Amino acid sequence: MAPFEALYGRACRTPVCWDEVGERKITGPELVQQSVEAVAVIRNRLKTAQSRQKSYADKRRRPLEFQVGEHVFLKVSPMRGTSRFGKKGKLSPRYVGPFEILERIGTLAYRLALPPRLAQVHDVFHVSMLRKYEPDPAHVLNFEELDVDDKVSYVESPVQIVDRKEQVLRTKTIPLVKVVWQHHGTEGATWETEDSMRELYPYLFASDV
Predict the structure, then answer these.
(1) Which of 3.40.1740.10, 3.90.226.10, 3.40.30.10, 2.40.50.40 is the CATH number of 157-209?
(2) What pTM, to 2 d.p., does this model score?
(3) Which residues pair with residue 109 across a beta bridge?
(4) Each residue of 126-152: pLDDT tens digit?
(5) How many helices and strands, by DSSP H and E, does the chain display?
């Protein structure tokens, strides 16, 4: 059923039908009944569409499961300086570990054997925060070098500016700098506004003086 038909109780006329006259008038009770029936049809079709989409998603989704005794990596979220930045230029997550799985909690959570260095972190994690133990130097960090907080986040600091450019808008030009972060290397460098970086990390611009 088209939105026009659901709203007005009749199909939208095409140019072929513009010369038709004498349409049947719909009065109060009949209009209410037709509206109720139209809403019911729309709801049923929405449920069918949602059910179909869910079945497609379930087929593509592979449940991630681990066994007690296995080792996994734990995802940690980097924060830049003392404040979180927006999604644009967001630093990708990294992983620490590996840690042994001590217990399965329900169907979607696991208890890990954390070292004393991470004592402030709750030891039960949703499966989405875990990763199969496959060593990858590009993504795995030594947690001994990090100050991980109770929200499983750590502070990431900029170490170098490697490039510059300008973003030209209608009314102004915004200078940007490409920043290399401490635990992300050159491949994880991001573009940031020069003004914000000068305010938060003035030491990066010492050579400009």
Answers:
(1) 2.40.50.40
(2) 0.41
(3) 105, 126
(4) 998 888 887 655 545 555 555 555 555
(5) 3, 10
